[in-house]
Amino acid sequence: MTEIKLFNTWSTEGIKVSDPGLVNCINLTPTIVPKSGGRHAKNPFYKSKLNITERLINKMFVAGHKGKKHKFTSGHIVGTTTKTAKIVIDAFHMIEEKTKKNPVEVMVKAIENSAPFEEVLTYQRGGIFARESVVTAPQRRVDLALKHIAQGSYQRCVKTKKTAAESLSNELISAYKNDPASYAIQEKTRRDKEAMGAR
Predict the structure, then answer these.
(1) Tally of domains in the chain
(2) Is residue 123 part of a domain?
């Protein structure tokens, strides 16, 4: 039987999620084209049923704003799935060339490294606003990691001559190596420190 490879190029066989909390949230089911067309959208926790590469592609469309005043957004970089998938494919080729490793494995490790453990919840108690540290849910951890990777890659290429694929590959490699220069790693550290102060 012929092995199913991602984009008919990269195998997902043998890749394991080392973080026990994220095992059920990072789907590595073999698929050639990671595009579900929203068939799981009505099911609870449907995101966990999507291939992790498809979730990265979806985040590359609109990574979300940064801060409450929308100081930073990627809302104007939306396009077609084909175009965004080509950015991810080109980034994977660059990762493979630079690291000599399976880019899917690099992406999974980068998500694990940049997924925050805790965050701060603000709520009103009487007449004051209280802040409390809470444990982040596994699916939200993956969502935040993908969001920060997408925002970090956009930050690297905006107003520069770097391509989107080059920026995404650099961001994934930095997060894979736990490099403090990575935007996703910086955001994880910031959230964890903020939560530590609110305990």
Answers:
(1) 1
(2) yes
